[in-house]
Structures are given as C-alpha cells and as structure tokens.
From TrEMBL:
It comes from the Eukaryota. Signal peptide: none annotated. It comes from Eutrema salsugineum. One of its GO terms (cellular component) is spliceosomal complex. Residues 16-95, 174-247 form the RRM domain. InterPro entries: Nucleotide-bd_a/b_plait_sf, RBD_domain_sf, RRM_dom. This is RRM domain-containing protein. Residues 106-136 are annotated as: Disordered. Belongs to the RRM U1 A/B'' family. Residues 111-126 have a biased composition (Basic residues). It is found in: Nucleus. Its main location: nucleus. Keywords: mRNA processing, mRNA splicing, Nucleus, Repeat, Ribonucleoprotein, RNA-binding, Spliceosome. GO terms for biological process: mRNA processing; RNA splicing.
Length: 247
DNA sequence: AGCACA
C-alpha cells in the first residue's frame, strides 16, 4: 500500500483570497487592515481586506486579490514573516469571498444571522467604512488615501508627491529618510520592506508628520544597500523616495 | 486555535 492520503485536511485549492492567522491581536483593527493592505499590495491588486474583532475571529484576516496568482505569490513570499512581532500564518481561504462571487455572478446572499439584534433607535451614520475597500483607493485621485478623495482644490499635489525643497543632500550615513509614503502607512509596513536588509535596526515615524519615515541601519554601507534596493518601491502606487537623513 | 463577508 502506498501513502495515498496526501495532506490530510489541509487540502484547499488555490484561489484569490488568502487567510491569515496568528496575527497580533493587540493591534487595532483599522491599523491592522491598513498594514495588511500596504504590505500585500506589492503582489497585485487587492479587492478587499477583511478582519473582525469578534472572539471567534480575532487574530485573523482575509486579503482578497484580483488574481489567484497574486494570492499564491503572497503566500510563498510572506508565510511565516514576522508581523507585529508574530509570524504570519498564511493559507488560501477555504471559501470564495463575497466580492469575488459578486463579480462572478455566483453570489447568493446568505441568510442573516439573527443572533445580534441591532440597537433600535439610533441609526449611526456610516461615515467610516470599516472594511478597507481597495476600489476606492485605486479610483481615487489621491493614491494611498482611503475613502473619498478630497476635493481637488484641497489637493496640493495630485498623486501625493510632495515637492522636494532644494537643499543640500545629506551625506551618506546610517539613517535613511523615506518620503512619499501613503499617509496612513504604518511603521510595520515600512519595517517589512527594510527588515530583509542586513543591519536593519528600526523604523521611526511621527504621527504628526505623515508620509515620511526614518529607517536606521547599523552602518552606512548597509543603509546604502537598502536604499538602492528599495528606491522607488511602490507602496499602494506611491513610489518611495529614499535619501539619507540629515543628522 | 479560531475560515468571513457590520
């Protein structure tokens, strides 16, 4: 008799959605989704990122890609990668995501679970959607910013690229200055990109100054290698601009 | 550990 029971149980066919668990449950949902979105968008267009705070679904998330190829690349590249101090565990999702089914035409609305009765009376305005819909960002005139685009009159530099003030560039050193990040980029996202380079020490960001980050390396040789490797790398369509930090 | 679609 041969060994014919292949992988017991863990048989899930490749599809557009990845299921991630072992996520750090202390991270706020909103930040988590933004980080996931930014980190995984390098593998292809993302249709939706879903995560829930209920007990049964804490520490887990679904990232729906436009293509199954993106999903498998994401698994190959990111499974086990440290994310908020815990290695992500990534698989294909077991069932088709609603966004996908809707695009398919195969979507059948499931019956509403009557478990949670809504609080009557107060209808709160759904001003902020909880689920990160990438369609919005992609169609936005303001890449990298979720939700509705601000009126054009308020957008000083469509495309999000800030002008670089003409000043003497800082001489090479061990700290990098990263600009043109989408405004809601999290330190974790930046860390994930620089982590792979030898000598990486830390990322520093200031909430009051969105769009920039400082990335410290042990020495200037190492920061230079990272700079060359990641110069222009796109996070949500924004190419990173990396220079040496002024000290 | 836990596979949903606020």
């Amino acid at each position: 008799m041969e060994m014919q029971e292949a992988n017991q149980g863990s048989e899930v066919s490749p599809n557009q959605t990845i299921y991630i668990n072992n996520l750090n449950e202390k991270v706020k949902l909103d930040e988590l989704k933004k980080s996931l979105n930014a980190v995984f968008s390098q593998f292809g267009k993302i249709l939706e990122v879903l995560a829930f705070k209920t007990l049964k679904h804490k520490g887990q998330a679904w990232v729906v890609f436009e293509s199954a190829e993106s999903a498998s690349t994401a698994i190959a590249k990111m499974n086990g990668f440290p994310f908020y101090d815990k290695p992500m565990r990534i698989q294909f999702a077991k069932t088709k995501s609603d966004v996908v089914a809707k695009a398919d035409g195969t979507f059948v609305p499931r019956e509403k679970r009557k478990r949670h009765e809504e609080k009557g009376g107060k209808k709160k305005k759904e001003q902020h959607h909880d689920s990160t819909q990438m369609g919005n960002a992609m169609n936005s005139a303001y890449p990298g910013v979720y939700g509705a685009a601000p009126p054009l009159s308020q957008v000083p530099y469509p495309g999000g690229v800030k002008p670089i003030l003409p000043e003497a560039p800082a001489p090479p050193n061990n700290i990098l200055f990263v600009q043109n990040l989408p405004h809601d980029t999290t330190p974790m996202t930046v860390q994930m990109l620089f982590y792979q380079y030898q000598g990486f020490k830390e990322v520093r960001m200031v909430e009051a100054k969105p769009g920039i980050a400082f990335v410290e390396f042990a020495d200037e040789m190492q920061s230079t290698v990272a700079m060359q490797g990641l110069q222009g790398f796109k996070i949500l369509q924004n190419p990173m601009l990396i220079t040496y930090a002024k000290k």
